[in-house]
Amino acid sequence: MPPARHSPEVQDSQGHINELDGVRAFSILAVMAGHLLPLGPSTLQLNQTSAVMGMSLFFGLSGFLITYFLWKRPDVPAFLIRRFARIVPLAYLYGAIVALVVFWRPDTFAAIVTFTLNYTDPQIFKGVSHLWSICVEMHFYLTIAAAVALFGRRGFWIVPIAAVIVTGLRVEAGAYVNIRTHLRVDEILSGALLGLYWVNRDRIGRPALEAALRRGLPLVALLWAASAHPMGGALNFARPYLAMLLIGGILFLPMNGFKRLLQTHPLAYIAKISYALYIWHPFTALGFMNSGSNVTRYLLKRPLSFAATFLLAHLSTQTLERYFIGLGKRLTGRRRA
Hints:
Layout: H1 19-36, H2 46-72, H3 76-102, H4 106-113, H5 132-151, H6 158-173, H7 186-199, H8 201-204, H9 207-215, H10 217-227, H11 239-252, H12 257-262, H13 265-272, H14 274-280, H15 294-336
């Protein structure tokens, strides 16, 4: 029997969807593993596959949650204040440390500040290259905010239209994996499509469709994993929508052992610091920490890199991010009052 819609098993009283914490935790761990660990022989290309899988889930969750909360409260200034308070301070701090203090690249820092790094290849180097994804996120935030500001909830019609256009551009360009917003943002838009379905589920929900997705979840997961591998070929074009179906299938599952695992405290903690983990993890593997033989690098230094990443993420989440997130909530709280 399918779970009751918006049941406590799926969503708490504040609208937090608990099992998505586990999905977010697994997504950031997959990205970190792809970037920091040797995942089999290089000929298998498992490192790239792991990182692409993690990013597709990360983007899909972002699109889902942004749509979910912006639909519930279509207050564009409040949305932008909270998003900027969440994303910008740590991204700018990290950019200043790496681009200015470590490498003295003001041009790179300017690209980070203006969220244009994913379109300025000469400014990209190891240590900041992962910040391309922050640019894609910010471009999505600004676009969906403008649509809602102009048309209210009708502005969400931009989501399916843009998803079709972006995927079409990817097919035309043969872009399996790309950092340009117009060739990657369908991974966020697909999550937004799921978010639109979820918030309107009581009105347009299709129980038979949801039941079929629950039953087919293992197949969806397998196809999604294949769509993240370079040898997946044209299946790569379907990756955004397979990630959407994977997240949706998890949401539609009745409470079981798997969903309980996704709601465990360790995964909730990793999800809480996931943004900071993503921002900091390349920094802990630069220079000396990336030197030496494979044995030295991966058996001795990588555990230190992981430990340092978690420590930095915990500290920045509890200090810098906590302060600015709280500031954003206070400012938007006054608007609501």
